Amino acid sequence: MTKRVSLTQYLVEQQREHGLIPAQLRLLIEVVARACKRIAIAVNKGALGDVLGSAGTDNVQGEVQKKLDVISNEVLIEANEWGGHLAAMASEEMDSIHVVPNRYPQGEYMLLFDPLDGSSNIDVNVSIGTIFSVLRKVTNTRGISEEDFLQPGKQQAAAGYCVYGPQTTLVLTVGSGVAMFTLDRETGSWILTEDELRIPEDTKEFAINMSNMRHWAPPMRQYIDECLAGKTGPRGKDFNMRWVASMVADVHRILTRGGVFMYPWDQREPDKPGKLRLMYEANPMSFIVEQAGGMATNTKERILDLQPTRLHERVSVVLGSKNEVERVTAYHRQAG
Ligand code: AHM
Ligand code: MG
68-110: per-residue pLDDT in tens? Predict the structure, then answer.
């Protein structure tokens, strides 16, 4: 029988080899992974668990919350509050940060998450997921505020996501490559199923919501026009398109077989840099993608270098296979 490596064993061995996972961070990752298991169970129950449909509330960005958005948020908060590994949490679904209550010890990490990404896919039984990002509290001051969270993505201590799809898969980086774990439902364990994931530098597959094409900036339209022109066009090859509309699922495909994912600026709301959130979606995914040899920009700059100014800030996203991200970014830079 091939030896199975559990998440715990992987984390312990990573700490021994690279010293990147101190005890508090290990606890944090294991607690998040356990919370994802609980969310997976709720997702699987679907209509039988009365978890589908709208919660009847709006989040801070004015989006209608689904029942599963709210449930997943509660599961993550409850699971992470008491362990002593965190100082505070921030979520796409909460207006402001959630400071660890006084009755528990305060830890040195801060956790950010999109509890249930791909909300529009919940009710139609298509893959959805949880995305998380871990920062260190760098200030020595007592107490914690939103300011502590406003660190560029390159300072993340860890990032990961869990896809609730045909399989339940956890993907993780602590800054020394990317590992993938699959949930063994019989034993309830996360088992390492791939280590040192690499995104191919070249690809013939792009992911973008094409229905918005007429609203994009000219360099974005140019890039897609050239892909669509196929073999006889300037790129000299045919491209394929995929769009799940769950960032977790689209990024997971790119980690598995390459591709480029884009959610660009759009002229309907010129003051909004994009749809996706920097702190809960773009930063953790960019960290993972870079750790797998890919690239991530906001069409002009490296996402991980961006200095956040607000917790719920939005950003344009281009990430995945290096040579395509470089091309999209070059078109935008040339356009000024
Ligand atoms: P959510 O966090 O509210 O689910 O929104 C983010 C999602 C991403 O997962 C996905 O890439 C995008 O929104 C899909 O947007 P669209 O419906 O415009 O295709
Ligand atoms: Mg999301």
Answer: 999 999 999 999 999 999 999 999 999 999 999 999 999 999 9
Strand, helix or coil at 98? strand
d(CA 149, CA 144): 9
Cα 245 to averaged position of ligand 1 atoms, centre (Å): 5
Of the listed ligands, the closest to the CA of 263 is 1
**Cα 294 from Cα 159, distance rounded (Å):** 15
- Choosing from 147, 165, 195, the residue where a domain stops is 195
Which residue's CA is the nearest one to ligand 1's atom 14? Answer: 245
Q: Determine whether the shortest distance from the Cβ of 106 to ligand 1 is under 6 A.
A: no
Cβ atoms < 10 Å from Cβ of 294 = 30
Gap from CA of 246 to ligand 1 centroid (Å): 6
Q: Is residue 73 packed enough to be buried (19+ CB in 10 Å), middle (13-18) or exposed (0-12)? A: buried
- pTM, to two decimals: 0.97
162, 217: one domain: no
Residue 231, pLDDT above cutoff 80: yes
Give the whole-angstrom CA distance, residue 284 versus residue 156.
8
- Calculate how far, in angstroms, residue 281's C-alpha sits from the geometric centre of ligand 2: 6
Pocket test for ligand 1, best of 126, 163, 275 (most atoms within 8 A of CB): 275
CATH number of the domain that residue 146 is part of: 3.30.540.10
Q: Looking at ligand 1, which atom is closest to the CA of residue 120?
A: 4
List CB-based neighbours of ion ligand 2 within 5 Å.
Answer: 114, 117
The residue whose CA is least distant from atom 11 of ligand 1 is 247
State the residue range of the domain holding 212: 205-335
* Residue 141: pLDDT over 80: no
- Tell me if 245 CB under 6 Å of ligand 1: yes
pLDDT tens digit string along 165-207? 999 999 999 999 999 999 999 999 999 999 999 999 999 999 9
**Does residue 112 have a pLDDT over 80?**
yes
pLDDT attached to residue 124? 95
**What are residue 99's DSSP bridge partners?**
88
Lowest mean pLDDT among 63-67, 216-220, 224-228, 241-245: 63-67
Among 133, 160, 195, give the residue marking a domain's end: 195
